[in-house]
Structure formats: structure tokens, C-alpha cells
Amino acid sequence: MEKRMYKVGILGATGTVGQRMISLLDNHPWFTVTALAASENSAGKTYAEACAWQLDTPMPSWAAKMTVVKCEPGLACDLVLSGLDNAVAGEIEDAFASAGYAVVSNAKNHRMEDDVPLVIPEVNPEHLAVINRQRKNRGWAKGFIVTNPNCSTVGLVCALKPLADAFGLRKVAVTTMQAISGAGYPGVPSLDILDNVIPYIGGEEEKIQTETQKLLGIFDGERFAPSSTVVSAQCNRVQVRDGHLECVSVELEKPATRERIISVWRSFVPTAAALHLPSLPVPFISYHEEDNRPQPRRDREAGRGMTIGIGRLRECPVLGWKFVVLSHNTIRGAAGAAIADAELLAAKGVL
Ligand code: NAP
């Protein structure tokens, strides 16, 4: 690809996802952060004053000194990464795309629109082709919106993609144990989550079900045909800081053996690997042989938070096969996902 640095603005820079973006973009080889934007409460303050930094790694000094601005077009950058609250993301992202910016969004607002790509680089990079239709539909000459999936959908779909390609996939039943950081900051009140599991996360089950079908579906050059795989999700909030663990059962179309399934996961080479995107991990999937892995605390940082952990593959008397998946929700499921999508856009010359 062309050797150049792209200027990046971060919308929602003070939030959980925004902070992760800043941390992951520190010394990024292709992207340099030139604008940090958040709500009117934060605008005008330095980033150090505006942000309650939650990460264990220090706030990068270049970010601490920057002045936070309002989320309005006019930022000096080539693209914006959005970690905006869902309540405001839709309109603000539209305004930026309409003003000519490439927008990569974490928010749910645009994900399921039929001219918006919902992309994981290792799963469906070809879905970016819908951008031309999006521009035409919306009368946007230059700008566009690309989205990454919900944090619990990402780990699931990365585990399913190699199975769908090798064996075909009829049915999926997934039960999630989702980390507290998935609810943003301050998120779930401590007295609700300590010593507890909350068996409900609003809208999450529907997102997993529909986004999985879009991601595993086909874009035929005109429109998306969602995958016919039937997906049923049950979502729980647990008292883990980072890392969503998911118990998955699948019904495959073709016969498989345990050895063959593990080999399919381990040998899966995404087409996007040829693009050498800085954020794509090697390995993409790590299969754990131990009976008690993967675990959030011990395994979520694998591949700088981008590797998908899988374990406990065994026969399921109901659907055929069952296993456990782990993914880091604020990295692979959010900030790292958006950055990887932006790298894909850069490598494909879309920026
Ligand atoms: P968060 O911690 O609550 O941060 C929200 C951000 O939005 C803050 O920077 C906030 O700025 C900004 N904001 C709020 N109201 C605004 C307004 N009216 N105008 C401009 N900016 C405004 O939320 P989060 O957890 O980072 O989530 C951000 C997005 O990513 C959400 O759409 C969420 O669904 C999605 N997501 C989150 C995760 C996760 O694991 N947390 C995973 C996947 C996707 P101020 O600080 O100035 O208020």
C-alpha cells in the first residue's frame, strides 16, 4: 500500500472505547491522532482534564495535552473513529459522512442498514463494496460509514466463520457471560453486579442474532443476503472487568470430527491476512487444549487483545458440537475492531 500516515479523529474520545482507541493508536504505523472530540461537557478542556482514564497503561502524553473539541465536522483528519454513545452516534456520524469524512463506527445505529457495511476484516472484507451504493443512495460524494459489530457478536462470528466455510452452519445457540466494561463507564452500579449475575442486557440478544446473519451473509454487488443460519442468544452480565466468554452449541451441515474442527480453526487463514494489517493478530484463533481455558483474566490479552480464544470442543447431544469462545470486548469487540476496519479501508485504497 501507499506509504503515508492518515490523520485520525476520535469521536467519543473520553469514553471506554475512545480510551482504548487512543491507547491502541499510540505509535500506530499508519495512523496519527489529530483530533479528540466528545460532548459539550468535555469540549474546551485538555484530554487529561476531561477524561477519567480507566486503563492500567498510562494515558499517552500527546493525548493528555490535546484540547477536546465538540463532535462537529471541521476536524483536521482523513477519517473518524466513533466510540460515541448510541443516543447521539447516529446523527453525528451522518453529519461527518455527509461532510466528506470516512466514518468507522462502534455504535449500533447504522449497523443493520442495507447500504452500510458491517465488517470484521477476517470474516467479510468484501462487504465494503456496498460503500459505492451507500454514497449514491445518500448523495455523499466522498464520505461514508463503515461499522464494526457488537462486542459479543465479534468473538462468536470469528469462531463460526471457519466452521461455516468448512462444514456449513445450520443452527447456533449461544449463552454469553459479558464483562462489566461492555456497559461503558461507570456502567453497571457496583451494588448491582458484585456477588451477582444479571441475566439481561437490553437489545444484546437481538444484536447477536441479526448481526451474525449479516456478517456471515453475502453481498452480491447490489444487496446483502443474510446467512440462513438460525441463531439464538442468551446474554448475561458477570463481574469480570474485560473479556466476554460465550458458551456456543452448533449444528453443522456436514459431518465433522473433533480433530477436523480444531484443525479448521487452527489452519484458517483469512484473506485479509495477505494485506498485513497492523492490528490483525497471528494467530487469528488460539485453540486451548486445557479443560479450564480460555479464561477472561488469563487469556484476554492474547494477540494484544485481538486473538480469539476457543476451547472445550466436545459433542453436544442437542445440536452436535459445543465449545467456549473468549474475546476482549473493548479491544477485539470495539476499539481494535474499528482500527482494524480502518486499516482494511486504507489497505484497499478506500480512504
Ligand atoms: P461511554 O464510556 O459511555 O462513552 C461515551 C462517549 O460518548 C464519551 O466520550 C462521551 O463524551 C460521548 N458523548 C456522550 N454524549 C455525547 C454528546 N451529546 N455529544 C458528543 N459526545 C457525546 O461508552 P462506551 O462504552 O465507550 O461505548 C461507546 C459506543 O461503543 C457505544 O455506542 C457502545 O454501544 C459501543 N460499544 C461499546 C463496547 C464496550 O465494550 N464498551 C463494545 C462495543 C461497542 P463525554 O465524556 O464528554 O460525556
Predict the CATH topology of the largest domain.
Answer: Dihydrodipicolinate Reductase, domain 2
- Total count of helical runs of at least 4 residues: 11
Task: Look at the helices and sheets and give the structural class.
Answer: alpha/beta
The CATH superfamily of the largest domain bears the name Dihydrodipicolinate Reductase, domain 2
The small-molecule ligands in this entry are: NADP nicotinamide-adenine-dinucleotide phosphate
Spans of at least 5 consecutive residues whose pLDDT stays below 50 are none
The ordered string of helix (H) and strand (E) elements is EHEHHEEHEHEHEHHEEEEHEHEEH
> How many strands, which pairing sense, and closed or not: the largest β-sheet?
6 strands, parallel
CATH architecture descriptor text of the largest domain: 2-Layer Sandwich
Helical content band: 25-40%
**What is the number of domains?**
2
Identify the strand order in the major beta sheet. Answer: 3-2-1-4-5-6
Mean pLDDT: 97
Strand content: 15-25%
Count the E strands.
Answer: 14
CATH class of the largest domain: Alpha Beta
Cα(first) to Cα(last) distance is 12 Å
Shape: globular
What is the rounded Rg?
19 Å
